[in-house]
């Protein structure tokens, strides 16, 4: 074992730890990883050309520094077809491997409202070529997010409206009870694939109605019992 007798030094400046604010508090939630659940609402799976009855849950990742609390979404380069996807955000205070269903909610710190912004044209090309999705999903500022509301204050929402308006027109609407894989199930299943730890964030899937944005659009999202998110495309 090597014993260090002085403070560590770095050859470059260490990156800033990505954080999400906590509602009604000066506290910040430090983010370790961001997992996203794919096709977790049946109607969205159908609109994307898949049969939800035949698929187990699957996951992809965004980068922690893709989280965006600025209220603005900069339209990204290399794409002409960027889509919104409204989602409930689940932030974890605990983790482990092979977490039982009856312990999964013990891992939850709180909830937020988020958007999984997607370069759909680049994602489509990646799918066609059998390549990973990061180019379509894990780009800068691609995960706008509200402040987190602690589960200690609101409980663990399992039903309630989730919706998104674009320029005042309702585009997505659903209910949390329509999720194919509920929050305890997604945590338990995911912990069989990865070791979950405090600071992990899960975007829990989107209802039907996804579509393209353009510069100047105003997106207003809502999840009952959790709150609201407003983002302008710039």
From TrEMBL:
<feature type="domain" description="Fumarylacetoacetase-like C-terminal">
    <location>
        <begin position="34"/>
        <end position="234"/>
    </location>
</feature>
<protein>
    <submittedName>
        <fullName>5-carboxymethyl-2-hydroxymuconate isomerase</fullName>
    </submittedName>
</protein>
<keyword id="KW-0479">Metal-binding</keyword>
<dbReference type="GO" id="GO:0016853">
    <property type="term" value="F:isomerase activity"/>
</dbReference>
<dbReference type="GO" id="GO:0018773">
    <property type="term" value="F:acetylpyruvate hydrolase activity"/>
</dbReference>
<dbReference type="GO" id="GO:0046872">
    <property type="term" value="F:metal ion binding"/>
</dbReference>
<dbReference type="InterPro" id="IPR011234">
    <property type="entry name" value="Fumarylacetoacetase-like_C"/>
</dbReference>
<dbReference type="InterPro" id="IPR036663">
    <property type="entry name" value="Fumarylacetoacetase_C_sf"/>
</dbReference>
<keyword id="KW-0413">Isomerase</keyword>
<dbReference type="Pfam" id="PF01557">
    <property type="entry name" value="FAA_hydrolase"/>
</dbReference>
């Amino acid at each position: 074992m090597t014993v260090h007798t002085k403070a560590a030094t770095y050859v470059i400046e260490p990156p800033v730890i990505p954080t999400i604010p906590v509602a009604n508090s000066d506290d910040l939630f430090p983010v370790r990883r961001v997992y996203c659940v794919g096709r977790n609402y049946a109607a969205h799976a159908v609109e994307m050309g898949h049969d939800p009855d035949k698929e187990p849950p699957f996951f992809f990742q965004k980068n922690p520094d893709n989280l965006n609390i600025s209220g603005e979404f900069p339209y990204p380069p290399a794409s002409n077809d960027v889509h919104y996807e409204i989602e409930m955000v689940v932030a974890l205070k605990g983790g482990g491997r092979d977490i039982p269903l009856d312990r999964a909610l013990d891992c939850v710190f709180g909830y937020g409202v988020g958007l999984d912004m997607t370069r759909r044209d680049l994602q489509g090309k990646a799918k066609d070529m059998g390549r990973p999705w990061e180019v379509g999903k894990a780009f800068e500022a691609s995960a706008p997010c509200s402040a987190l509301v602690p589960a200690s204050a609101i409980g663990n929402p399992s039903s309630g409206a989730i919706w998104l308006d674009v320029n005042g027109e309702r585009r997505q609407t659903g209910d949390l009870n329509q999720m194919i894989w509920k929050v305890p199930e997604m945590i338990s299943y995911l912990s069989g694939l990865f070791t979950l730890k405090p600071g992990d964030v899960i975007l829990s899937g989107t209802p039907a109605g996804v579509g393209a944005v353009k510069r100047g659009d105003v997106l207003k999202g809502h999840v009952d019992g959790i709150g609201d998110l407003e983002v302008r495309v710039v």
